[in-house]
Amino acid sequence: MSALIQLNNVTKHYRRGKEVIAIFEGLTLAIEKGDFVAIMGPSGSGKTTLLNLLGGTDRCDGGEIIFDGERIDGYSEGQLAAWRARSIGFIFQFYNLMPVLTAAQNVELPLMLTKLPARKRRENVETALKIVELSDRAKHKPKELSGGQQQRVAIARAIVSDPKMLLCDEPTGDLDRNTANDILGTLQLLNREMGKTIIMVTHDPEAARFANRTLHLDKGAFAEVTA
Amino acid sequence: MSLMSQTRSVIVMNVRSIPQRLWMSLATVVSIALVVAVLLGFLSLANGFSQTLKGSGAPDVAIVLRDGAEAELNSTLSRDQVDLLGRGPGVRSGADGLPLVSAELMLVVDGIKKSSGTKANMPLRGVGPNGLLVRKQARIREGRMFAPGSNEIVVGAGLLREFEGFELGRSVRFGAQTWRVVGVFEAPGTVFESELWADAPVVQSLFKRGTSYQTARVVLAGPAALPAFVDYAKNEPRLQLKAQSEQAYFAGQAERSGLLIRYFGWPLGIMMAIGALAGALNTMYASVSNRAAEIATLRVIGFSGFSAFMGTMVEALVLSAVGALLGVAICAVGFNGLSASTLGAGFTQVAFRVQIGPEIIGQAVTLALIIGLVGGIFPGWRAARQKPLLALAT
Known about the structure:
The complex is a heterodimer. By secondary structure, chain A is α/β, with parallel strands linked by helices. Chain A has 7 helices and 10 strands.
């Protein structure tokens, strides 16, 4: 397998007043195509910053980020937005659905960034909702759905434009155990059946077990790797 | 990428989410509606007043005043001059073969306004037998014309509407004299409806005006005859008077008086607009703040900052447009067609109807949309600059 995304010697600092806080000093990481990786670590270890760098929603101060053979760390804001739209699906802890839109309209959002005609968009939305087994909830608004159903809609939104990589930020953090396992099962299915590369930040060791491997991040460095 | 489709999506989301901020949005709509209603109220007052004055003048009737006089009250004409005017070029004759000239004088008398119960000035016009003939719009609606040489008056329908005690058959006192109302005349949409008319020689006599008049109205063969008549009135050594078409005379007065109302209405409207703008900015900043997670989510997915900006802008414009429509509706239902009166150029009350028109609606709606535009730009800019960070989205 070849790496889908690589971080080479990446540095990232934040400035708080006059103080400069180093998050990463020379972080290196490679995620293979088709991998399902869980990233764990204590609060403040840099998990969310890592996810932002991997998702092109934040910039590194040094080093390079390569996605599918192409450096993305020099992209402009517009290029990064376009890259995110076609390459990455995001799944959030609190689902982040638009409350005024129906499930189908929420799923359709990433397709509004493409030039697909309305008919094709509709077809893709139906397929995505079918994959997460929510075809019968297409016209429901988020508040009419349970937490698990909302997260399934969010997964459908993440996969509707067929991105290569899914980034999940505590995707089961707001769900009970059984529902969380259902969601994680769906992610596992997307990884195994559809070949999606998945990177999931989680605090939950149970959730991490669904991944192929777990990376432990501590103080800006990977302390331990478990299979 | 389709910038249009993503912008459309964000706009739809923004507009649909307005009910989630119902009370703040409603406050903005109401404040903008008040701005529009107040401004439109003043503009429609000015408009109605101007229309009334402009409607009072005919293009083929010359009004003659003393050279240098701007209004009837500070003009004076002698009987000889009136006779000479009747012999001017292009003057039409009546059925009796005599020139259609009406020599008139105007005095200010007191009346009690129905609306406030306070005293206000009314114009009492002394007119000759041609008084009705030189005003095509005027006709006796009830009763009859005053009899020459008598203490009888006819009252304009507008004045009757605005002032107490001028109903047909009533007696009224001006100074030491008692007058009897024998007729009501109407001259729709003109200033004349706000006047009392009596026989000119009686007015001259009872108000000690000798044989002088203030103005003469001269009916010409047509508008084309005006330049020659103006030239005659100006250059004839025994006249040296200023003649102009009645239409131009009232248009000039309408402009001056209308401007006064507008000069009051616009500053008030703009001051209120600044208040409404503060409200609109507050609402839109709150909107951006409430939707911070939504905006960040969309930005993370790949939506542009421009679409976030446009969503906020259009929301602000929708609120201001709804406010504008409400303001126009309030003004149309509450004010349009109302009878009002104000001080005219002759220091007398002019009755008119408040009149909303497309031009002033356009001006008031434009002000509302400017509030929306400015109220949307800065919060929209904030929305557009929101970073697409995962932490913000969650």
